Amino acid sequence: MKALKVKINGKVLRTGYRWYIVDTVREKDLAGYIEFTPEGGLLLHIQGGDNLLQEVIEKIRSPPQPTVIKEFSIEEVKPDPKLKAFTIKYGTIGDELHEGFGPIQFELEYSLKNLLNSIEDIKKSINEMSKKIDQLFESYMNMVEAYIKSSGKQV
Fold it and tell me: Phi and psi at residue 53, in whole multiples of 5°?
């Protein structure tokens, strides 16, 4: 068995990255823990088979957006035989609330941005349709006027 201490800094909080790591590590049935650091990063202790550890490291080095990793350091440490599962060492209630609402905030911002883009697309479509309606109306009026002239009727 091998154990690693992994320090990660960057835009890693309020992005859903901690849960991404938790899910990734638990999928491989590794033991250890994850916690916030005072600098606003994450600290992991993970232990298990060497191949599984490498798979986890590879996956968590390439996180989904909006996470941005600026520092990713790995140190081999002594395995802790007391660790049987992968757990979260929770921070303060404030930290946890921010962490929980962060991914929701990202999703809301992303959804709002998409909604605003859709509204702009709809506005453009309406403007294009309005121009086509004006052209059709003008064409129709020209046809009516031509008909009236050709029939010799007064309006």
Answer: -60, -45
Locus of tokens 């309006």: 155
Give one DSSP letter per residue of 54-66, joined into a string. HHHHHHHTSPPTT
What confidence tens digit (pLDDT) does each residue in 15-72 have? 889 989 999 999 999 999 999 998 889 999 999 999 999 999 999 999 998 899 999 9
Say if residues 73 and 37 touch (Cβ distance below 8 Å): no
Tell me the three state secondary structure of residue 3.
Answer: strand
Round to whole Å and give the CA distance between 62 and 127.
43
Question: Mind listing the pLDDT tens digit for each residue in 82-128?
Answer: 999 999 988 777 676 666 665 556 566 667 788 888 999 999 999 99
Could you write out the DSSP letters of every residue in 108-143? Answer: HHHHHHHHHHHHHHHHHHHHHHHHHHHHHHHHHHHH
Q: How many CB atoms lie within 10 A of CB 42?
A: 21
